[in-house]
């Protein structure tokens, strides 16, 4: 496993990540908003082929009258030919452990499609029933409960002195911008 700031990702690896993301999400743009300090975490085989990839994004949020240093997972993808072997689960669990060890992270929040909840729970994340992330911008919001979405919110609270109770069933103004509308 290797981690790079997205801007420093070697071209050979960046091309593989872009291909994997294009296969998983045709038509989606590549790369993340630099304002979110994107880091790319990769699981490589012995030859340097990307088996699985994800991005870690960070920003400060306000919730319940408090400020939190939030991180999130984005663009989690496993090479089609390598699926079903636990690579994605290992990568997500390693990302969770890295964020839990980061003293600059109070909490981890992200959304996923409902069928993927057990996958993320197996990596140690907690589902927040009824929680809605509001992404985009205040002027152009995109919420996880928007019509046609089947999203759930998951979290981890490594550095927060508050836990899931403060976030369960809440609308959380994430507002990561228009590039990473929801992470």
Q: What does this molecule look like?
A:
The structure is a single chain. The chain has 183 residues and is α+β, with helices and mostly antiparallel strands. The protein has 3 helices and 10 strands, in the order βαβββαβαβββββ. The protein has a 7-stranded mixed sheet with strand order 1-2-3-4-5-9-6, with helices on both faces.
Structural topology:
Layout: E1 2-5, H1 11-24, E2 39-44, E3 50-63, E4 66-78, H2 87-101, E5 107-113, H3 117-122, E6 126-127, E7 132-136, E8 141-143, E9 151-156, E10 171-173
Parallel strand pairs: 4-5, 7-10
Antiparallel strand pairs: 1-2, 2-3, 3-4, 5-9, 6-9, 7-8
Protein name: N-acetyltransferase domain-containing protein
InterPro entries: Acyl_CoA_acyltransferase, GNAT_dom
GO molecular function, one term: acyltransferase activity, transferring groups other than amino-acyl groups
